[in-house]
Amino acid sequence: MSLQKFECSHGLQFSAPSSEAVRRFDEVVTAYLGFKRDIGEKLKSLLAEAPDMPMAVCLRGYLTKLVGNSFTDDKARSVSDTLTATSQTQNITSREQNHIMALASWVNGDLDQATNYWETILTEHPTDSLALRLVHHLHFYSGQGSRMRDSIDRVFPKWHAQLPHYGFVLGMNAFSHEEAGNYSQAEQFGREAVAINPADAWSTHAVAHVYEMNGMLTEGIDWISANQKAWNDVNNFRFHVYWHKSLFHLERTEYDEVLKLYDDVIASDLDADFSLDVCNAASLLLRLELHDLDVEDRWERLADVSRKHLDDRDMIFTTLHYLMALVASQDQEAIDAMLSNIRNWSKEDTTQGRICAEVGLGLAEALVSLRAARYEEASAALMAHRKNTYKIGGSIAQRDLFEMLLLHSATKGEITDWGTDLAKQRKDNQPNSLWSWRTYAYCLDPDADSSAYTEAQRNIDIIKKSLVH
Length: 469
Known about the structure:
single chain, mainly alpha, two-stranded antiparallel sheet, 24 helices, 71% helix
């Protein structure tokens, strides 16, 4: 099939058999940015008509890699190897070549090099929304919000409302600024994005993060509910938005509502084996247990999924959530197999392998110790890795679970001074959190710490009254 050069709606040149193929490629990218359920169908149709279009094949590799498990790794590598070989005989642009090299780096586990290729693309082609979303994704899983913010800040001045994907870029800007702690600006960008496209689930979720960080529980529930009809038709990412809604209800101690959201929505499609679904579900069940709720047999379904991923080596963040389900179900054989995999993974000279060695393995062992009620051992491990936990990636809200686990393990058994200090630090950082104040009060001696204890009880009463509706 003969390839020619055609320009897309964002002013980028593509090597393609026709302008129609480029138009349809734009449709697939739009579906990807919007978490649409027909991404796969659109791409399959495009590849049937333009099987040799380099960027269409590359996008197939990207989407396969985004699934994030061992079952798709070989497929992504095959796509990348074939694409790398065939691209040598094609007259393609330097931008397309950098995309192909980014995919190759990604499948080889060099996430740092992959981000470098995408950043190079964006330096010369700031309106490449595919490169922008992918580097946004991998910066996110580096755990460094400032890198994610700086990445999009560099290109944002080149975007304007007439470009088709402008709303999605606003949403990425919103989330980046939230993770960097710029909450006012994040909310502004997110609300503007949702005004352009109410079905933009990423932007809706970015504003929800702002409310989470500021302890604005009712506002968060109202925000998500108000836009629910618009974004509820997206793919499984919608369950993550409901996860955020459940966190607001959890802080409000509305446990029946949390369990209903879990059963009816968040855990409703676990058979799809989508990694984020398991992360949502596992972290929510563990949070419920930290609130002293009995989650009954809900861990078992998660453990069934997790047993399929004992050998995964994609993102340690995801693997740790699989492990949460296994330790909760007390499947020692599966636990041992996953720990062995993480130990071997930590010896690999890959981006995630190095993160496993530095922090991932320690966190994994802490999860096992905690479930076995070896609290001193668990708290020591969690504390030792506290400053580097961000390296596993995920959002601040997602990683907060490890802060909660640290506090939980540090305040079990004999209350130590540093456990009390941790509890004080948390209630200072989250003054609207009932769980934080209750944990702090639990650490105090009503007689020896009478002033602090009285203050804690007063704040607990104030927050409880504010939650009455």
